[in-house]
Design brief:
Elements (H helix, E strand, L loop, with lengths): L23 E11 L1 H7 L16 E8 L11 E4 L2 E3 L5 H4 L10 E2 L11 E5 L4 E2 L8 H4 L5 H12 L5 E5 L3 H12 L3 E6 L4 H9 L4 E4 L8 E6 L6 H8 E9 L20 E4 L5 H10 L9 E5 L3 H10 L5 E5 L1
Parallel strand pairs: 8-9, 8-11, 9-10, 11-12, 12-13, 14-15
Antiparallel strand pairs: 1-2, 1-6, 1-15, 2-3, 3-7, 4-5
Helix pairs in contact: 4-5, 4-8
Length: about 325
């Protein structure tokens, strides 16, 4: 399925199999998660995409061919490919282990062809071995590769002292991360669009301490809040909800403009932090942690040909949890 221009639906195309270059793996794709970032691409909210490009950056596949110089992988291995798809390895951020900020980074399904396809090639550095298939089938593991990884990085940036955490938007990332927070002994407060009873009920079933509308005040001050919804107006609301010294973490790649707000809402050492992409450390840590909890993913499956329908279902909030394309 190919993106050709903002505002147009994805088009089904038949292409030759991509051949792996040096240090790349060729993968037969089994599943690929559907992400809100894919909607931002379709809506023209992400600058300078590769055009045409195959979207999709929560890829589950098996290795079918090895490029020259590949080490640590063999044919038949099951791996996952995330959003961050390539980095230069030479800039100050790469040298410091902050490759998520690489000046020349390339991104799966945005500036590199992604997983809305039967076959893909990927840099071996950004292919993660996955937990055993008996623990996580292809359908269930796909959401861990973006919703899980970006959620995990967002949680790390909340700080180790964050116990009471608010989630603004309760979709794919939040339903995974809620299980991580509870595993650590923390409490989750879920904020949804006004009147979204299904999402609030879903949050309560996952053990959230409270669920309500995004314009409501939680029953007690929060240590931190993570904003998953791409709505800038939630930043001032989250600042009101966190305690002195609390953190507001913006977990999306795109957000509408943040409205002005009184300095008093930021004062008392509250802070606002954005999340950019992920590091290999995030991937390694989270994919080792998830089966130990174990994290359970709630998934709605679509076929590859139904990619446009899956994206519109995500836009409208027609399902809880995550959507995944099965090849």
């Amino acid at each position: 399925m190919v993106f050709t221009a903002a505002g147009r639906p994805l088009a089904l195309e038949e292409r030759a199999l991509p051949e792996p270059r040096a240090a790349q793996l060729q993968l037969r794709v089994h599943a690929c998660g559907v992400c809100r970032t894919d909607l931002h691409l379709l809506d023209g909210e992400l600058p300078d995409p590769l055009v045409p490009v195959i979207p999709g950056h929560q890829i589950v596949g098996t290795v079918t061919k090895l490029g020259e110089g590949v080490t640590g992988f063999s044919k038949g291995a099951r791996v996952g490919v995330p959003w961050l798809g390539w980095t230069c390895g030479d800039c100050r951020f790469c040298r410091e282990g902050r490759e998520n900020l690489c000046d020349a980074a390339k991104f799966t399904g945005y500036t590199l062809d992604g997983g809305y396809a039967e076959c893909v090639v990927a840099d071996q550095r950004y292919c993660f071995p996955l937990p055993p298939e008996e623990d996580y089938g292809d359908l269930k593991v796909a959401p861990l590769l973006c919703a899980g990884l970006i959620g995990y990085r967002s949680l790390r940036l909340c700080g180790e002292d964050a116990v009471k955490i608010g989630f603004y938007g309760f979709g794919a990332a939040a339903h995974i991360l809620a299980q991580v927070v509870r595993h650590r002994g923390g409490s989750v407060f879920a904020f949804t669009r006004a009147g979204d009873a299904a999402a609030q009920d879903f949050a309560r079933k996952l053990g959230c301490a409270w669920a309500g509308n995004s314009d409501e005040v939680p029953p007690e001050p929060l240590d931190a809040a993570i904003i998953f919804a791409p709505a800038g107006e939630l930043v001032p609301a989250a600042l009101k909800a966190v305690r002195k010294g609390g953190r507001v973490v913006c977990g999306g790649i795109h957000m509408s403009d943040i409205p002005s707000f009184p300095y008093a809402q930021l004062w008392e050492e509250r802070s606002i932090q954005s999340v950019a992409n992920l590091t290999r450390r995030d991937g390694e840590e989270f994919l080792e942690l998830a089966p130990r909890i174990p994290v359970e993913t709630s998934v709605t499956a679509f076929s590859l040909e139904e990619a446009n329908e899956a994206l519109e279902a995500l836009r409208s909030g027609a399902f809880t949890g995550a959507a995944v394309l099965m090849m």
